[in-house]
Amino acid sequence: MTRSPIALSSPLPLSPSSQRSPSSIPSIQLPRIRRLAWLISVIVSTAIPFGMPSVALAQLAQDPSLPVLPVAPSGTPAIKSPRVDESTLPTTVQAEQMTGRPDRILHLDNDVDITRGQTNVTSNTATYQIIDNEVEAHGCVKMNRYGDVYTGDDLKLNMDTNKGFLNNATYKLAVGDGHGDAERVDFEDSDQAKVIVGTYTTCPGTKPDWYLKAKTFDIDTGLNEGVANSGIVYFKGVPILGAPVMSFPLSGERESGVLPPTYGSTNKGGLEIAIPYYFNIAPNRDLTITPNLITQRGLQLSAEARYMGTDYSGLTRIEFLPDDRLAAQEAADLKALNPAIPDNQLPKSDRYSFQSVQAMKLGSGFGLAWNVNYASDISYPDDFSRSITQSSQRLLNRELDLTYGGTYGSVTALASRYQVLQDYDAGQALISRPYDRLPQITYNKGWQDVDGFDFNLNGQYTKFRNSEYDGKAATLTNPGGGERVYINPQVSYPIIAPDYFLTPKLQVDATSYNLTNFVPITQPVTGVTAIPGTAQSFSRVLPTFSLDGGLIFERDATLFGNAVTQTLEPRMFYVRTPYHDQSNYPVFDSGLADFNFAQIFTENSFSGHDRISDANQLTSAITSRFIQANGIERLRLAIGQRFYFSQPLVSLNPPTTTPDTATTPISRSDLLLAAGGQITPTLGLDSNIQYSQSDNQVQRANYSMRWQPAPKEVINLAYRLDRTANALALNNNEILKQVDLSAQWPIYKRWYGVGRINYDLINRQIAEGLIGLEYKADCWVFRIVAQRIPTSTLQATSAIFFQLELNGLSKLGPNPMQALRSSIPGYQNVNSPDTMFNNGNN
Fold this sequence. Notes:
By secondary structure, the chain is mainly beta. Helices cover 5% and strands 54% of the residues. The chain folds into three domains: 4-61 and 78-258, lipopolysaccharide transport protein A fold (Sandwich), CATH 2.60.450; 469-669, no CATH class; 690-842, no CATH class. The strands form three sheets. The protein has a 31-stranded antiparallel beta sheet that branches. Strands 1, 2, 3, 4, 5, 6, 7, 8, 9, 10, 11, 12, 13 and 14 form a 14-stranded mixed beta sheet that branches. Strands 34-35 form a two-stranded antiparallel sheet. The longest helix has 11 residues, at 327-337. Residues 1-5, 7-80, 521-533, 655-662 and 833-842 have low confidence and may be disordered.
């Protein structure tokens, strides 16, 4: 019989139908286990204990920032066709030879092809039971159903129920890169299959570097889930993880279950072993509960919940360690170091921390947000932090915000308190406790282009309180508490043209204080006791006029052989504010503003509202830019300086100094210079210099360079110098002079080196360091990273990370990604993102 297609709708008679071509996806044969490279395997196997009751090899991010929007998973995208009812579809049969009864059974030989809907079977020979709609195929069997490809020796399949089996099989799933082999595959329906005595891997080719071997696999492509029973993960032939039950997502998406354990060792607690359990509650919500055994301290429990929606996002984290076995000794050591440490700040037997960050829209222009942080004692960041940002966090804020924005302006009602975790190391200045704001209400409303005028109204009411000064005589730097009302109306008339701009502006700063237990600086503080409940009220009204103007010239030019547009932008900014003696005024939240190109074009030299600087000054600056036609700024040069027509008199005035009149006369500020730009497509430079003409020296300088010739290739070099008063105060009266070098660079073929060194040139020591290696294979990545981070002025913690990332399965070992990203600007993951919450795990 010649080869011809026929279509059958069992048990109806045969009817002609068009031919359907079989799938051409090739089968993949997996090899026997081969000998492994032992080094990486031994390292990972020491981190992963065997005999865990149940492990779900899920992908999970661990960065504490808020959840981000979902990203597509890595690997092969889903190409599975949607499920349809195939019971009424015809069955198409074709072969070189056909024999049998057309109404009951067909025997097919040579180049057999049977298709019904999304299921296609090809083989050397086959028997088709027409009444039962059942196929038995033998020899080079290949079945493609909904994009999943199975090959083997013998197949039996009911085309109606999709139940059957395949002997000596291999398989390749349509979703993700998963494939493997098996002694037998049992098909339970169109989505579910049981792989018996088989393997699973995402590595390409017939000799995978890693694979999961199990007694049985339950594959459910509808739920995107695989479950291995009595499974063992092999890497380079070495078993590195085993458990009675392992579940994993087929497409690399998140999956609930026990995550692979992580381990570590520190000088603060000894060996640590953590086994997180991950709950994938919904696409926009998850929860992680982690028992963490710290051998020298005890069992720490933590929980982290992340959630987000159209109008809200948030994160909540809790850590709790009962009966810390080292707490008593740490408290005694701290007390011996500094007997003045309050007992309520010392470590207790129960150690804990709490963090909750939330933002939401309430509708009708209203919004609510909070940021709440708390730690049980001052040593918590040193003992339990795993990053420099956490270990150096000494001010924990608790803040609640209610906002409104609408036709009548914007309003923010805020309540804020701080917890201070003092660093009592010798020679370290104590942290001044910020004032609580209970509450602070801010209003802002603007009216634009009212007959050419712009109007703006700012207002703020704040009630300050500082519990450190309760029951004490208040002074200038510790006024204890009080109320402040600030109102700032503004009017300006901007004149803007393509080649120039001019903006005259008039504003009034009106401030009123009502203070309790306040002793002004002009009174002798020694021996003076404030009368509890007494108040002092005073106010200040100051007008400020400013005139901001500039020109913009352009010309065609060339830079490094490229055609560019060069600009020349001179700018002048005049400010006039009359002097008002503020030496008796408190300082709740003000400070001297940072001196830079942005600040010199503002009216006030102070931040906050407690000080309004007197001014009769002119700021002059000139900027030149070299801009390509595509908008890229190839080079930027700038120089600026402020000139004083009268001596500025207002200062912060701490109590140890005399009032404003003792300020040293000056006629001009330090000189500011800046240069930078994207010099070439791969090289970026930036520099800022503050030069003192009176001292004839550089007061502050920052130079930085980034060279990024290709993806995953970056070198950063920076130099920082600071001898200003603020730097001396923060650095124990020492000049800050540091060199910072960081890089990510391919070393040899698949090997990448990563590193950073922040070197203190004054003390001749490494302030912070990181070094590591990454190896990128086709289906896995290995990382080893060592990091040194300061936890206080006299102490530092060293950490080492070993991580093996098996694509499509899991990441084994502590995650160094947060350390790499924060230490190396421009760092890129050598592997592709594969998690929904892309905030530190990729």
